[in-house]
Amino acid sequence: MKQFSQAEMERQLAALIGPVGEPVSMAVEFGAVRRMAVAVDDFDPIRYDEAAARKRGFRGIVAPWPLLWSYFFNCTEYHLDIAFGRATVHGQDDYEFHEPLIVGDVITVATAITAARLKQGRTGPLGQVEAERRFTNQFGQLCAVLKTTLFRR
Amino acid sequence: MFKVDMVEPPVVYFEDLSEGHEFPPVTKGPMMVGHQVRWAGACDNYESEFHHDEYVAKAAGLPGILLSGPFMASILLTTTTKWLGRDARLVRFFDQNRGATMPRDTAIMKGRVKRKYEEGGNAFVELELSITNQRGEVTTPGSALAVMPRRGA
Most exposed residue of A8, A73, A136, B92, measured as fewest CB within 10 angstroms of its CB? Predict the structure, then answer.
């Protein structure tokens, strides 16, 4: 494996900071909502039944928040272009929730790398990269912000 | 089609919770590869082969298949929404992917009210969360912030 100096690793990380690709839009589909709700054992009727969701004051069937991960994998570039290290590890997630995702909505996801720094890990240099994804609906309302921290070692 | 038995969550009020209150722990599992595959389907993401193929996982130097960190965090998030009841609004959720969950591991979800307060006309509860495995190891520490309904409002 090629060895990099600390300055080279820092340069690679700094180059990541900024927007990643163009914003991407995808509709909230009932099948996707149902599959995610079943996967995470969410049996609240608002995930399956429009009448139940409306009775609770929602515009329609409400997606469980973990559906954000479907957008993460389908609408955003999540591979990092880092030459040093062997593996990228998912470290932590920080979610902010605003407007619910409703079946029939069109969600636009914008991704940016907001911070990237080199730290000293237990076994050597460790790249810490923070990515932010902002999810907005067709009304321009912010639905959620998902901040993930990845480690490159 | 998997038959879903829908369950309407109860209403939990701000007044029902006190600082230090511990929610009844919820045990999931044993977690199996099938859970992970269902998650992969819900995310429409099959790229991370080490999450469902033991040969690939071991070839990458892992002890075996690892269940996805965001999946484990998502079942903790879902459990949290059940604890807080149907009229609570989750505002923030945080999780750390500290330890691996492997097939046949048990995941015990725990939650505790760390703080409750009122601000800007809203009633907030701040929770400490965790997933512990059958060996007592905390694999996923986390936290959440929610706005709770007021009794009589």
Answer: A8
pTM equals 0.94
To probe the interface with B, which of A28, A34, A44 has the most B CB atoms within 10 Å? A44
What digits encode the pLDDT tens for the residues B23-53? 999 999 999 999 999 999 999 998 888 889 9
CATH T-level assignment (fold) for domain A6-152: Thiol Ester Dehydrase; Chain A (3.10.129)
Domain ranges, ordered by start, for chain B: 14-30+71-148
Contact of B111 with chain A, judged by CB distance below 8 Å, is answered with no
Q: In this complex, is the C-beta atom of B78 within 8 Å of any C-beta atom belonging to chain A?
A: yes
Contacts with A39 (C-beta within 8 Å, 6 or more apart), sequence order: A66, B35, B38, B39, B41, B42, B71, B74
Superfamily of domain B14-30+71-148: Hotdog Thioesterase (3.10.129.10)
B89 CB-contact burial (10 Å; exposed 0-12 / middle 13-18 / buried 19+): middle
Q: Which residue of B has its CA nearest to A35?
A: B42
Contacts of A64 in chain B (CB under 8 A): 74, 78
